[in-house]
């Protein structure tokens, strides 16, 4: 084979290789996306994202509605308390009328807040939160409203520190407002103190003493409840065995 024939065959082979490479690029490689394709892809992504955001909003709304229902159920007692604290004295009252009304209010206050009537298994932190100071603040406020409406309630100006003192209409007690209104509840309204334990109905003169009581006697409330349940189950087992 002469040199010219070799060169011709070499050129033919190179041309075949170029054709093969070109066909391979056409058949197996993606074309670069056009601007229209990019816009379509972006639009599709935006639609998918808006759908996802819409679903998230629906989920959040559903969760919010559930929380609102739970809050309403939990606030049933608060609504009753608000109705109770909306009771205001009608005109001036005699001491006996005042004490009678306060007895009704305190009894209802304790019934509404009593944890013995509720099938709740609360931990100690929840029990402490349930005995919040604000709850008792409203009881003190309604007490003041009624006591201040007693006919001819005597107010005395202290000579020592010029503070306002109150003379009890039913005994010789004289004191400033912070001790006078609790005195009315304790001495003249069925021996009530302002701060009451909603688990065992014991009364205390301050919120600090009440929390000390809760920590000392009700810290293991959950454990005691479980022991009571176990005791009841044991009684049922004993009865079934005896039968």
Automatic annotation (TrEMBL):
<feature type="domain" description="C2H2-type">
    <location>
        <begin position="195"/>
        <end position="223"/>
    </location>
</feature>
<protein>
    <recommendedName>
        <fullName>C2H2-type domain-containing protein</fullName>
    </recommendedName>
</protein>
<keyword id="KW-0479">Metal-binding</keyword>
<feature type="compositionally biased region" description="Basic and acidic residues">
    <location>
        <begin position="37"/>
        <end position="51"/>
    </location>
</feature>
<dbReference type="InterPro" id="IPR013087">
    <property type="entry name" value="Znf_C2H2_type"/>
</dbReference>
<feature type="compositionally biased region" description="Basic residues">
    <location>
        <begin position="54"/>
        <end position="63"/>
    </location>
</feature>
<feature type="region of interest" description="Disordered">
    <location>
        <begin position="30"/>
        <end position="63"/>
    </location>
</feature>
<keyword id="KW-0862">Zinc</keyword>
<dbReference type="GO" id="GO:0008270">
    <property type="term" value="F:zinc ion binding"/>
</dbReference>
<keyword id="KW-0863">Zinc-finger</keyword>
